[in-house]
Every structure is written in C-alpha cells, then in structure tokens.
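All the exercises in this workshop are built on plain-text protein records. A record pairs a protein's sequence with a compact description of its fold. The structure tokens are whole numbers drawn from a learned vocabulary of backbone shapes. Once this layout is familiar, the rest of the handout is easier to follow. An example says more than a description, so a record of this kind follows.
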Amino acid sequence: FKTEPLTVFDPGTELNVPLVDLGKAVVCNVMDGEEAIAQLIEGYEAGGESVEPMRIDRRALHAAVVITALRKLVFLHKNADKETPAARIKALQAYFAAHESLLED
C-alpha cells in the first residue's frame, strides 16, 4: 500500500515472526496493565481464522519484549520529559520487575 506513513496489513503474520509481533504488542500496550497483556497472549495462543494457534514460551516472549523495549529506548529517553514516554518507561520498569525471573538461569 502506498500510504503516508507506510501501512502494512499482516493478519497472518507472514511478514514477521509472531513472537516478535507479540513482544511489540506488549511494549505498545504495557501501560494498560497485566490483564491487557494476558489478553494479548491468550489471543495469540488461541489463534483465529487466518492464524494458527500457538503456544507462547514466556521466556522467549520476555526476550522479545526486552529487545523491542531496547529498540524504543532511544525515543523514550529523548522524550522522557513528556508525560506519555515517562509513563511508558515506568510501566516497562514495572513489567520487567514482575517478569525478570524469566531471564534467570
């Protein structure tokens, strides 16, 4: 699609690995809280008409969230004085604190 900005529709996630998409979705929705994140995970696990159900490895998901958050860190850091980026940073810190045990071993 030639739109400004570029719009990509990917209902079957053929353009990306579903786990990476889910990691991005968690980062984008982290301010909505754990319940919203749980619903995202349930949706990916359940699948749909054009998407196969999949089992989500929580450690791999957490790694995808960390990678996505690190990639957004430059933007968030540059805008940390603004309300929304600062709130997202705090929400991500809370998410990481709650899930850091997934990276232990």
